[in-house]
């Protein structure tokens, strides 16, 4: 029979006394120590050691965030999911501190301390592993938790909205009626799905607009999805119009699906810190599926509870639809995108001209207008033609010669012609050239509103704005990069026109 080994218990506290311990107590303690030694020597070889758990629960996130070892004598500390390991270097039974010089012959001792967690802590840890990437929170960017929370909420309410729309389509197609023709209903359903695929194909023509106006298109996708679900929900009231209404609604759903899927990668990339885009995508898909399943279950309960009343069903649908839109808005509100689109570029330049400094990522993204038509320019400078025609900027030879002489060292031409600011891009124009042209345009616009002359080309203001952009652009771009903005790849969405010219034209004779 194997002996039972119990963990060593701490010695009980002895009351303070001025007298020395008796000889009986000394003899008993010595005999007890001898028995413990004999027991340790007779320990069998195949006894599984029992892990000693700490009496106090340990917060793993706090341990992960610590950069110093737990013990001052530990040379290193390793953190794993269920325990911590402390490494000690000792000589002659004495620990050597982490800063001491180690010698050949020093011994390495490893002490493992298991993390004690309640059932609630283990459940929360399991949820974190399902919803958060490996290495969280160091492996993701700011705003990830808020985005995940509202994404779960958006999918929850979106699942409930989908139940009402599907129920309306099934009722309109005749499911549950004995007079319904199964073949006709199946054909109508197939045609509806085909129109949805056509909607995806047509809306994919937006192209890089999904990268430039990520937040706006993401919110528009949620709005279009709710409108299409509302259209599907009213089909039972007009069953003879089922096919056209269902086709229009499914085309809108296809466009919404393309917008949501195309903007997802840009959002996930903003959270990436350790080349873990795949891990972030997998965890967010898990959150979305979980929210959709819970929302579908709640939608089924609501649809059954409101099946006997058209008014209650409409109220329930409007409630979950508004909750879905609000969750989608809050989901994208906390995203901090580092790329510069037209609105964010104008915002940075406007703040730089007024305050003399570039705002950081958090401030710039919080001031961005999300409820905005993404295909329009920002309100700061609404009359910029980026990628204008060369003939519009230089209608005659004198104007062309003036522009080529002024911008002989640039890959763009900026001018004010016909009450609009026009920017012509050369074939080899880069992102920095577009951003520099925007800096000149915004500075010109501010000066024009103060001292500009209508019905004039305002060439003095154009030259003044070019001098300002030429002298300040490097410091502006450098400060923007220090504040986290990406100036190497701006998404200003210029019109796809390019031009080439010879900068060494002879000067005009006078």
Description:
The protein has 510 residues and is an alpha+beta fold. The protein has three domains: 60-117, no CATH class; 144-333, Up-down Bundle (Growth Hormone, Chain: A); 342-482, no CATH class. The protein has 16 helices and seven strands. The chain has helices at residues 23-41, 60-65, 119-131, 144-173, 182-203, 209-212, 214-233, 242-271, 277-305, 310-333, 342-355, 361-366, 390-393, 397-406, 431-451, 459-482; strands at residues 76-79, 83-91, 94-96, 107-114, 384-386, 412-417, 420-425. The strands form two sheets. Strands 1, 2, 3 and 4 form a four-stranded antiparallel β-sheet that branches. α4 (144-173) packs parallel to α7, α5 packs across α8 (242-271) and α7 (214-233) runs antiparallel to α8 (242-271).
Task: Describe the secondary-structure layout.
Blueprint: H1 23-41, H2 60-65, E1 76-79, E2 83-91, E3 94-96, E4 107-114, H3 119-131, H4 144-173, H5 182-203, H6 209-212, H7 214-233, H8 242-271, H9 277-305, H10 310-333, H11 342-355, H12 361-366, E5 384-386, H13 390-393, H14 397-406, E6 412-417, E7 420-425, H15 431-451, H16 459-482
Parallel strand pairs: 5-7
Antiparallel strand pairs: 1-2, 2-3, 2-4, 6-7
Helix pairs in contact: 4-7, 4-9, 4-10, 5-8, 7-8, 7-10, 11-15, 15-16
């Amino acid at each position: 029979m194997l002996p039972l080994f119990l963990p060593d218990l701490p010695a009980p506290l002895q009351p303070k006394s001025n007298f020395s311990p008796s000889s009986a107590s000394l003899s008993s303690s010595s005999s007890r120590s001898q028995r413990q030694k004999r027991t340790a020597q007779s320990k069998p070889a195949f006894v599984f050691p029992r892990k000693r758990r700490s009496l106090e629960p340990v917060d793993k996130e706090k341990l992960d965030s610590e950069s110093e070892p737990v013990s001052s004598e530990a040379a290193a500390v390793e953190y794993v999911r269920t325990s911590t390991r402390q490494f000690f270097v000792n000589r002659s039974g004495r620990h050597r501190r982490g800063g001491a010089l180690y010698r050949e012959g020093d011994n390495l001792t490893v002490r493992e301390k298991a993390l004690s967690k309640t059932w609630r802590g283990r459940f929360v840890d399991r949820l974190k592993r399902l919803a958060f990437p490996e290495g969280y929170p160091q492996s993701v960017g700011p705003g990830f938790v808020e985005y995940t929370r509202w994404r779960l909420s958006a999918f929850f309410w979106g699942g409930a909205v989908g139940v009402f729309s599907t129920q309306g389509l099934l009722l309109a197609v005749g499911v549950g009626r004995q007079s319904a023709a199964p073949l006709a209903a199946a054909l109508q359903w197939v045609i509806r799905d085909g129109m949805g695929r056509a909607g995806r194909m047509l809306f994919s023509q937006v192209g890089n607009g999904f990268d430039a106006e990520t937040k706006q298109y993401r919110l528009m996708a949620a709005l279009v999805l709710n409108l299409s679900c509302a259209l599907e929900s009213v089909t039972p009231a007009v069953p003879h119009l089922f096919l056209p209404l269902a086709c229009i609604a499914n085309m809108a759903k296809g466009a919404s699906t393309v917008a949501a899927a195309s903007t997802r990668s840009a959002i996930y990339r903003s959270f990436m810190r350790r080349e873990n885009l795949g891990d972030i995508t997998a965890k967010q898909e898990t959150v979305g599926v979980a929210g959709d399943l819970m929302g579908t279950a709640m939608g089924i309960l609501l649809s059954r509870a409101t099946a006997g009343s058209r008014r209650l069903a409409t109220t329930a649908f409007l409630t979950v639809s508004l909750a879905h839109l609000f969750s989608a808005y809050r989901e994208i509100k906390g995203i901090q995108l580092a790329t510069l689109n037209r609105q964010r570029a104008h915002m940075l330049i406007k703040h730089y001209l007024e305050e003399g400094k570039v705002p950081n990522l958090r401030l710039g993204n919080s001031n961005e207008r999300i409820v905005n038509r993404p295909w329009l320019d920002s309100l700061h400078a609404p009359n910029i033609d980026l990628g204008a025609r060369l003939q519009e900027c230089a209608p005659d030879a004198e104007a062309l010669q003036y522009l080529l002489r002024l911008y002989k060292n640039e890959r763009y031409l900026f001018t004010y012609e016909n009450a609009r600011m026009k920017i012509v891009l050369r074939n080899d124009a880069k992102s920095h050239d577009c951003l520099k042209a925007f800096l000149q345009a915004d500075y010109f616009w501010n000066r024009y509103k103060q001292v500009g002359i209508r019905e004039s080309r305002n060439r003095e203001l154009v030259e003044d704005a070019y001098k300002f952009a030429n002298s300040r652009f490097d410091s502006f771009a450098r400060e923007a990069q220090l504040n986290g903005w990406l100036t190497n790849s701006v998404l200003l969405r210029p019109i796809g026109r390019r031009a080439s010219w010879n900068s060494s034209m002879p000067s005009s004779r006078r």
